[in-house]
């Protein structure tokens, strides 16, 4: 049997072709597929986990960025369509959450069937975007990265290292600045909301508003640990994801 060529977009760190359910994970602004390596380790082989690799970072560093949420969602949806058919759920953190929602919308429109579940982690609902601050310089953007956490402070203090990380974050943040959906835009798949009360970018009300964008309901799970609570409470996050995927699948 010929091994299929490695996808530029999808990273399957722990192949599990016999798993009944696939989970596609979409990174945050400035993030990359490797962020989900620990989740793949924890969930495989019960679930087949893919991390999405956006252009312009890691091994795709030389490729141009995609500068809008819609264009990125279109390309991710097309790439996922090359995989063998299998019940699929999406996990997205921060910017990845709105991308997960948009890819799920495209799936429903194209196939007429809902995805299993969308996990919206560390993000306001689509109707709560559209008021992002404009930043005139990179100093202000670095301030946002510091506020959110998730980036090694040594990187933020090293101009050479920072120059490799900042362009992707700048591009993705601008894409989010231009993103908004009315609460009349939704999906039929359940949305599992995961949020932290001490997240500086997401209020409890703005996170719970995700359920205005689905007719499928879904639970809300509240954590502590700031915007990147996934790193502070990984076991609790895995428990939520596992239970929801088992119930949906």
What's a quick, concise take on this entry?
This protein is an alpha/beta fold and 249 residues long. The protein is built from 9 helices and 7 strands.
Description:
The chain is an alpha/beta fold. Helix content is 38%, strand content 14%. The protein is built from nine helices and seven strands, in the order ββαβαβαβαααβαβαα. It has helices at residues 37-43, 69-80, 95-111, 138-148, 153-156, 159-177, 204-208, 229-232, 234-248, and strands at residues 10-11, 21-26, 47-52, 88-93, 118-121, 191-196, 220-223. Strands 1-3-2-4-5-6-7 form a seven-stranded mixed beta sheet. Strand 4 (88-93), helix 3 (95-111) and strand 5 (118-121) form a beta-alpha-beta unit. The protein is globular and about 45 Å long. The mean pLDDT is 90.
């Amino acid at each position: 049997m010929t091994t299929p060529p490695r996808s530029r977009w999808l990273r399957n760190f722990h192949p599990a072709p016999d798993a009944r359910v696939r989970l596609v994970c979409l990174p945050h602004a400035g993030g990359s597929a490797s962020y989900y390596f620990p989740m793949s380790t924890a969930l495989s082989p019960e679930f087949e986990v893919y991390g999405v690799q956006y252009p312009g970072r890691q091994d795709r560093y030389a490729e141009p960025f995609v500068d809008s949420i819609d264009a990125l969602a279109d390309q991710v949806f097309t790439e996922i369509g090359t995989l063998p058919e299998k019940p699929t759920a999406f996990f997205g953190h921060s910017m990845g959450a709105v991308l997960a929602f948009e890819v799920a919308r495209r799936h429903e429109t194209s196939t007429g069937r809902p995805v299993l579940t969308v996990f919206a982690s560390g993000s306001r609902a689509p109707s709560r975007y559209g008021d992002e601050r404009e930043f005139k310089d990179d100093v202000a953007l670095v301030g946002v990265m510091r506020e959110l956490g998730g980036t090694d402070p040594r990187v933020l203090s090293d101009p050479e290292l920072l120059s490799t990380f900042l362009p992707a974050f700048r591009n993705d943040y601008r894409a989010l600045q231009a993103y908004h959906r009315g609460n009349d835009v939704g999906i039929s798949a359940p949305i599992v909301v995961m949020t932290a009360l001490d997240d500086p970018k997401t209020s409890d009300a703005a996170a719970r508003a995700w359920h205005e964008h689905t007719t499928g309901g879904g639970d809300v799970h509240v954590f502590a640990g700031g915007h990147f609570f996934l790193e502070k409470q990984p076991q609790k996050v895995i428990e939520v994801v596992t239970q929801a995927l088992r119930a949906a699948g």
